[in-house]
Structures
1.
Amino acid sequence: MWNALKKHHATVADRKFIELVDADRANDFSVIASDMRLDYAKTNIDKTGRDLLIDLLETAGVTAKRDAMFAGEAINETEGRAVLHTALRNLDGDAVMVNGKDVMPDVLRTLANMSAFAEDVRSGAFTGQGGKITDVVNIGIGGSDLGPAMAVNALAPYHNEPRCHFVSNVDPADIAGVLRTCDPATTLVIVASKTFTTIETMTNARTAQAWMAEVVTDTGAQFAALSTAEDKTAAFGIAPERVFGFEDWVGGRYSLWGPIGLSLMIAIGADAFKSFLRGAQAMDVHFKSADWSENLPALLAVVGIWHNQICGYATRAVLPYDNNLNRLPAYLQQLEMESNGKGVSMDGADLTVNSGPVVWGEPGTNGQHAFYQLIHQGTRVVPCEFLVAARGHEDDLHHQHQLLVANCLAQSEALMTGRTLDEARAKVAVKFDGDELERQAKHRVFPGNRPSVTIAYPQMTPFVLGQLIALYEHRVFVEGVVLGINSYDQWGVELGKELATALQPVVEGTAGTDNKDGSTAALVDFLQKHGV
Ligand SMILES: O=P(O)(O)OC[C@H]1O[C@](O)(CO)[C@@H](O)[C@@H]1O
């Protein structure tokens, strides 16, 4: 299949896709599911290419793998675990079996407990020593931070109760900056850690505990924990009624839908949080039922495969024309790169194609005045993913939103159409002539034919955000199955953790640098001379 796709790519690589994009192609290469429209017409995928890509899904066994995932089979083979974040948004409670046990009663009970606690915090029924909670500090990292941090920003227009802060970095600047703005007597600290062992999180949690203890008599009463390790949360001193547990079949970067979403739930309320879950559930239903040729996550995945594994474009820019989605690129970096940044397939063989792409981005229009220069005229092609809402939330500034939308559409159009040398000459002919005209015109040429997809939606509501994040999760799943890798482990983060633990005494000066390489030893020496 890979060879067939590469052969086909050779036949379309030079085709100007601007010449192909008429109304028919725009409809044929777009799909609408629930509230979302995915347009992938501005690419050089043609019908044959799409058919081949869909054959690839079938050959790779995506259908069977998808069904196995939803059925609770242990598709995370290297860790022997099921992958069931979808159960967390299965609000109708239909049975989901793991090892012969229906997990839904526990899932729904935890959701009810979280909802009651979140509403108590919001209403003031739950208080700190100094009264109603004014600030919530979520301490977590990776999946225990990026999801809720991204979603609280994305849903800022729905955020109507305590201020929410997110501390992730072990750099003391992070926690010190946040705690400086909070009153310990009215702050709730949420320690979010699936394992409850992550060094950054546990270090920050102890710092927060000490900060609170200066003022608050019973600090444990103002701490909550989100974890799979209830023994460890108890040892930390957090009472069981404020521990919201989940199972090991929820991966860290897929955990926003359950207890790890508590800070989001406190920010927007339990009803809006359920609407967020319903959006994701709608995308799950679509993913399970739509034909691959009409299936949003599958199509987004095959476009990604086309650009990365077939065309060889190493990166992908995610460009939300939605300022509140400013943390989406960082969230997607973990979701996609921790899931699909692997060089070994499930059976232990080396991959024969590239692993997943480097994902990066910033909201438009800011990026336009920063890195779009390279996207338009650089020597490397960067496939772009634009996201845009029909409406913002600032009704009195709707004209400004229209300008935002115009910018978004202009960028994908400019990337596709480009500007020829003749057009560039015509632009500068009033100012220059002769050789100087030629030289100046060359700088103003845009190669065009640069691919992009656009995801459009009515408005960034909790329901729409749920759909969007579930769309990306399933896209990652499909790409992972096609590559034959396990998208649900993350062994690649281990070595650095082990070496950091070993280096701590070296940095502190209680161990020597004898067994370190020359470069590391010299850096330790330099930092120690400067007071580390
Ligand atoms: O929630 P935990 O267990 O603290 O882990 C945090 C993050 O660390 C990782 O395990 C990677 O180091 C991520 O996969 C995870 O989201």
2.
Amino acid sequence: MPDKNASPTADQNPILGVAGVQMTSGGTVEDSLTQAEQAIEQAASVGARLVVLPENFATLGTGQSGPVAVEEAADGPRTLTRWAAAQARANGVWLVAGTIPVRQAGSGKSRARSMVFDPEGELVAQYDKIHLFDVDVGDAYGSYRESDYYEPGTDVVTWDIQADDGEPLRVGMSVCYDLRFPELYAALRRQGADLILVPSAFTHRTGQAHWGMLLRARAVEQGCYVLGVNQCGWHDSKRRTWGHSQLVDPWGDTRAALASEPDILVGQISREYLKRIRTQLPTHQHHRL
Ligand SMILES: O=C(O)CNC(=O)[C@H](CS)NC(=O)CCC(=O)C(=O)O
């Protein structure tokens, strides 16, 4: 029996089981959806109540030039939004559908939209990736020009999930390249975020150099849990992502981590630990600028 006077440890009194689906999207959309369906079911079976898919889980690497705004096929049998809602309902989980490319009427470009579905399959929040990856990484893929296909989002988004203790836990939204911009994470913390999600397709080259460092930095800076859920492996002959999905606690310790293969990341959120770290290290009360 843990000493009730001892300081809470990071895993003490968990109030929410979370899971991240690390996958290698590619082949056809159907291939990717089948991978995701099996992983969501597995995550739910081990008690995760919040399941997060990686960036562009359905169409990354499908050989379709640029993002395929599958949403356009609104009359299609399995539009991604309807598919995600059905997965949340069928598995009784909160599902963050990584991102789905959603075509915008005005610009003709898409937005990388991260949608949140509750266990009844209702859309409760959506976030459009703000920072677009126009970078020359120096890998086999060469130049990434996300802004050729996507337009940026504009809004900072948080939403509440009712945790096992009956109290709300506030979840902050971000995507992939956003991870490099601390201002967004500061804004999410100002909105009250306790857990910040980072569905991603971080490249192998930049992931190896920066992914873990950036996840831990954002977690410590903001005193939040940060859940980074990445694509992994080779998506086609030139595109490779880093994997290494992980849950980082507000002290900066990695509580759960995957390697480079498709797998399910499972972790726990402790409200007591969150409060303890924020009390010991009240950086958010010491702002001067
Ligand atoms: O375009 C798609 O289909 C899915 N989106 C992506 O793969 C995006 C844009 S190319 N990738 C990143 O943002 C990587 C960021 C990154 O790796 C870093 O910041 O180092």
